[in-house]
Specification:
Length: 687
């Protein structure tokens, strides 16, 4: 029940304090955590475990944010803390006046870095979401280069009588040498390890040994040349893993996984126990002003750095860091054994205040591990920060992830904007075309990523099935591939697929290559401020305007020449209109030759109550219309009721002559009025 409230690292420090007290109580001298033992034997397993199993996708997607926090944030903490501590030493009285600016800056560089061991110990217990975990843990891994550079820089400057501008410039350049040199050493050893694993198919027993051996050699080689050993270990683990796992057997993979976890767990336990023992055994010099100022300024520098850097980072991030995320990042800046070991490495000759530095460092470590480490879990629950969801990756998720990667790469290619998807796709193509063929043995080098992932999932599912003892009753969820993995069968003969000829394939590739190349050359990233004016754009606009005016003129002419036919009323509406005002539809005199619309008001069931019996067009019979007819227009006549027994459909009426049955449409309006200057109308009446 205690471990659910207090982190494991705090309990281990308490155990170390008790063990150190017992050893001191019996009159013996307790052992102290020496820096050589820490840096050469205890730290590498923890960093290798973190680098080998690093979630590469989240790490690369947030690499810019991690680098800003690791580099700029650590520099800000070191100089802000060192400058304020120098001011405190100048104002703090006779016991602190002798501490100079370089010594305070060295102390600030030691205490400013976030410790990966402490972060791993605390964050893995609270199960924080992947984004916050990779931001804080990635920062703690990558700030090692800054810490190493600043530590050696100020240690060397302390021996100089005068520091020149050239020394400062060389110190700034040494940061790039230390960080990039460490990465380069790690990449070289990672490639060598992957290449070696290609030829270990007959000696499966020693396959895990190559992983540990080459990783440790990368760390030692980097430390030998004063480069960043932590970055060398991370780079070697990240580079070798995909190729080594494709070459080694499943048993070797299991051995590597569990041995690394066990080794890093043992190292972590020893580090925290030794930290407690060294606290009891070491020499301390307590100065209230210095210790309390260090603790207070550490917290202020961390909070200010996170707030300012996050405000800047959020301008470029799609997924913004919320205030809750900023609080967890600031609160998760734990210090640990790396700071203690660097302080222990200081030389008494040049730093006579080493005991006071160590006392302040241990105080900060205890405060961050105990107070912040114990309260971060309830704060995460109180703020309702998103937790890590333990879900197994599925084929569906992998397919959609790869699809979105290809889609975003294509969009970037079309837009002419070369973002990280474009370069990631370039790297994957180079890896598939050249690197895999050199570092992976057999047919696995040509296997697509999705198929490899599927085989890995099926193997895992099959092993779980065997371990659970369910091989006798196979559930429907397990596919036959799992059984084939357990009991391998002879492979079926491959189906011969029709293939394109080499000439045809090369021709298609040439067409695609030239077109895509033209696209890349023609299209640049879109920016409305830098658009180049098209010389033909104005001519096109004028041509479009002319076409639009011609279309409008044509529509006006059509309106003059034709009038659309009136839509007939529905039968119900016609009957209602006749019933309301029957006099309006009485037949007029002298209207024999006019078109007749007969309406039957009596049969509500018939759908065709309105019959066009006689619609003879005026002006189309060959005779010009008389003025009386022109004034009268159309005349409505009521249809006479038929005699009983007759069929009004098949019985011919008076107006059913062949000439009357022709339904012709003509102009009911002679056209627009003539213009004053014209003598004749637009359309002559006789036509």
């Amino acid at each position: 029940s205690v471990s659910s409230i207090v982190p494991e690292s705090c309990l281990l420090i308490v155990v170390g304090l008790l063990v150190g007290g017992l050893i001191k109580g019996v009159g013996e001298k307790p052992p102290i955590l020496k820096s050589d033992i820490f840096f050469l034997f205890l730290l590498p397993p923890i960093i290798l475990d973190a680098g080998y199993f690093l979630p590469l996708r989240q790490f690369t997607e947030n690499l810019g944010t991690i680098l800003i926090f690791a580099v700029v944030g650590t520099l800000w903490n070191a100089f802000f803390l060192g400058g304020l501590m120098y001011a405190v030493c100048q104002l703090g009285g006779p016991g602190l006046n002798h501490i100079g600016l370089l010594a305070n800056l060295l102390f600030g560089s030691i205490i400013s870095a976030v410790d990966p061991v402490a972060v791993l110990a605390v964050f893995e217990e609270i199960h924080i979401n992947e984004l916050l975990h990779i931001l804080v843990f990635g920062e703690s891994l990558l700030n090692d280069a800054v810490t190493v550079v600043l530590y050696h820089l100020f240690e060397e400057f302390a021996n100089f009588e005068q520091v020149t501008i050239l020394d400062i410039i060389l110190g700034f350049l040494s940061f790039f040498v230390v960080s990039l040199g460490g990465v380069l050493v790690g990449v070289i050893y990672g490639v060598i390890a992957a290449f070696t694993s290609r030829f270990t198919s007959h000696i499966r027993v020693i396959e895990p040994l190559f992983v540990f051996l080459y990783s440790y050699m990368a760390y030692l080689s980097a430390e030998l040349f004063h480069l960043s050993g932590i970055m060398a270990l991370i780079a070697s683990g990240v580079v070798m893993r995909p190729y080594v796992e494709a070459n080694i057997s499943h048993k070797s993979h299991t051995t590597i996984k569990y041995f690394l976890k066990m080794w890093s767990s043992v190292s972590e336990t020893l580090i925290f126990i030794f930290l407690g023992v060294s606290t009891v055994a070491g020499h301390h010099y307590w100065n209230w002003t210095f210790v309390i100022s260090t603790l207070l300024f550490c917290l202020i520098a961390r909070v200010l750095g996170v707030l300012v850097l996050t405000w800047f980072i959020n301008k470029f991030r799609i997924v913004k860091l919320t205030p809750k995320d900023q609080f967890i990042i600031a609160y998760g800046g734990l210090r640990g054994a790396i700071a203690f070991s660097l302080g222990y490495l200081l030389d008494y000759k040049h730093f006579g205040m080493r005991d006071m530095f160590l006392t302040a460092i241990i105080t900060v470590i205890f405060f961050t591990v105990f107070v912040q480490g114990m309260t971060i879990r309830p704060l995460v629950d109180l703020l309702a920060v998103k937790k890590k969801q333990e879900t197994k990756r599925s084929i569906n998720e992998e397919i959609h992830t790869q699809f979105l990667d290809h889609l975003l790469t294509g969009i970037e290619d079309i837009c002419g904007h070369y973002g990280h998807h474009h370069w990631k796709d370039k790297l994957n193509r180079f890896n598939k075309k050249y690197v895999k063929k050199c570092l992976i043995a057999g047919e696995r080098s040509k296997e697509p990523q999705l198929i490899a992932f599927y085989h890995k999932m099926e193997m895992k599912q099959a092993i779980e099935l065997v371990e659970s003892g369910g091989i006798g009753k196979i559930p429907s969820a397990v596919s036959t591939v799992s059984i084939q993995n357990i009991n391998p069968k002879t492979l079926p003969v491959e189906r011969i697929l029709p293939a394109l000829s080499k000439d045809k394939e090369e021709e298609i590739r040439k067409i695609l290559r030239t077109n895509l190349q033209k696209t890349r050359q023609r299209l640049r990233s879109y920016n409305r401020h830098t658009l180049v004016a098209d010389p033909y754009e104005e001519a096109w606009n004028q041509m479009l305007l002319r076409r639009q005016k011609a279309r409008q003129l044509e529509q006006k002419m059509n309106n003059y020449l034709t009038v659309p036919a009136h839509r007939l009323d529905s039968p119900t509406l016609s009957r209602a209109r006749i019933g309301s005002d029957p006099l309006a539809y009485d037949p007029k005199a002298d209207s024999e030759n006019l078109p007749i619309i007969t309406i039957d008001p009596a049969s509500p069931q018939s759908p065709e109550s309105v019959d066009l019996m006689n619609e003879e067009p005026k002006g189309c019979s060959g005779l010009p219309p008389s003025p009386e007819e022109d004034e009268e227009g159309l005349v409505m006549r009521v249809k006479e009721p038929s005699s009983p027994g007759t069929d009004d459909v098949f019985t011919p009426g008076t107006g059913d002559s062949p000439s009357n049955q022709r339904m012709l449409r003509c102009l009911s309006d002679p056209g627009p009025r003539p213009e004053p200057e014209e003598g004749e109308p637009f359309i002559p009446k006789g036509q």
